[in-house]
Automatic annotation (TrEMBL):
It comes from the Bacteria. This is Uncharacterized protein. Keywords: Coiled coil, Signal. Residues 37-64 form a coiled coil. It comes from Brevibacterium sediminis. Residues 1-21 form the signal peptide.
Length: 65
C-alpha cells in the first residue's frame, strides 16, 4: 500500500513539475516597447521611405524616369 501511495505522490509531483515547466516556456510574448530615441529613429526611417516613394512618383509624373 505504501508503494502505491509513493507512486501516486511521485506521479502528482512529476505532473506538477511538467505543468510548471510548460507554463514557464510558453509565455505569451509581449511586443517590445520602444524607447523615445528608438521610436524617433523608426519614425525618421518611415518618413525617409515615404519621401523617396513620393519623389519617384513625382519623377514619373514629370517624365524624368
Amino acid at each position: 500500500m505504501r508503494i502505491l501511495i509513493a507512486l501516486a505522490l511521485m506521479l502528482a509531483f512529476t505532473a506538477c513539475m511538467g505543468v510548471i515547466a510548460w507554463t514557464v516556456t510558453h509565455k505569451p510574448t509581449k511586443p517590445k516597447k520602444l524607447t523615445r530615441h528608438e521610436k524617433a529613429k523608426q519614425d525618421t526611417r518611415d518618413l525617409e521611405r515615404e519621401n523617396a516613394e513620393l519623389d519617384r512618383i513625382i519623377d514619373k509624373i514629370r517624365g524624368n524616369k
